[in-house]
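Lab notebook: predicted structure, single chain.

Context: the supervisor wants predicted structures on file for every construct in the current expression panel, including those that have not yet been purified. This is the next one on the list. No modifications to the sequence; it matches the entry in the shared construct table.
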Amino acid sequence: MGVVAPNGVGLTKFEQSLKTGKSGISFLPELKSKNFGCCVAGVPQVPESLINDTFSPLQLRNFSSSGILYGCIAGRSAWHDAGLKINDENPDYDSGCIFGAGASGTEKMAEVADKVASGNIKRLSSNTVAQTMTSGISAYLSGMIGLGNQVTTNSSACATGTESILMAFERIQSGKATRMIAGSCSDHGPHLWGPFDALRVLTRKHADEPERASRPMSDSASGFVPGSGAGALALESLGSARSRGARIYCEILGGHVNCGSQRNGGSMTAPNSIAVQRCITEALNDAQISAASIDVIHGHLTATKMDADEIENWVTALNYSHKNIPFIQAPKSIFGHCIGAAGTIESVAAVLGLTNDYVFPNLNCEDLHPKIEQLVPSNRIPTKLIEKAGLNIAVKASFGFGDVNCCIVFKKYEDG
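Prediction complete. Output recorded below exactly as produced.
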């Protein structure tokens, strides 16, 4: 796996901050200067040395796409973490990538708009197209590694990352690939976040205490905190991984993706609860597990008014009572909502917890929303680290604008 997140770049730093509950959210003066209502965000702190190790000087010339930068670092890190080598001579036709993006090259597009408006088209760099095309991230990454199987970019709003994992899983399951990098990335900055601020879905509070701003499941939640970064997972057929003695974090058992069609109460920005519940139950059916076998749920849980409805959908879909619901995790409390990158960054968090058997703390939910409090015991929404939690099955779900849903099931790997 590989990760570039607001709370840590690289698996070690990322996991440390998860376990200690160290927030990756900070105050951004740039947002204040541009009259944003929300002036806090999650931006990864990427060392210059890591950037130079990932990109050539030629690639970095006139380069300004933060999402592609984050995605290439995360994707290459996942490849190396899997113990795989980069092929410098020929394409690896057994390996590919599905690397998603909610939006791509927003900073570069702003530069394009300025130069076009001023009549300076000739001053646009030769790599502008590569940085602004939606598939820029998968194109850059395939060239860096030598991927010769399917190389594409999916885009399904905030469900993009989780969907990329399921799509890569299904390609391997079908026998059309041996291994795939699944990932997603998101730019940072005012050009991407501005429309969300105008929509008034971002919090306008806690500029003086940024670490308290992201409050999933809280009665005092006031909107989500925008974030950015990338997550990546190297998926491989079990036979191939075993044959080369690879370290295996976990197994993917199955999942499901659907759309609520903006009906039955769903809209462009709100989910159709019936479709959400169906996505969850169909994911379990595909994975051939029961609701009782789930040990931890990693929800979408954005710190908006929809959190209570999401918890109700989980409880209804899985027929849970107040007594038997598993642990619930809200990763966005630690690093914000990373938009298109959210699903894969949060999946990396889910897999780390599953593999190393811990439940990381949920931040800022000491005042649970009353509706959630009625549905879930407070000890199932832990605010402190729980080690040796006895985890075996984790479920991760993401829900996005356009009323799209994706749910995936991970299982702790046991050799033999």
